[in-house]
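Bug #77: duplicate submission created two jobs. Keeping one. Sequence:
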Amino acid sequence: QVQLVESGGGLVQPGGSLRLSCAASGSIFRRSAMGWYRQAPGKQRELVATITSIGNTNYLDSVKGRFTISRDNAKNTVYLQMNSLKPEDTAVYYCNSDLDVFRLRVGLYDYWGQGTQVTVSS
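Kept job's structure:
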């Protein structure tokens, strides 16, 4: 099973930026689509962004133009650059992987990493 380790979260003021990283184990990373999700207190986990094995990306409407997902296959790592952060972006952010990007959009996985907390507050 792929192991996922998220990092890069923290406390940032509104309008600030953070870059999240997700390091994945395993040799199938470069063939896998990757997704970033977030879960705010009292809310369901939602898909924020996906990137396919060939670099096609898709975003939640509320983060379009502010967030950018990217990947480095040499490092088995996917990133989420978050700019112009808003208080409503506050959540625990998780990543996951799948050979099928459509299954990422459903997001029904038993395994999740520990996540990384992002707090946007003045």
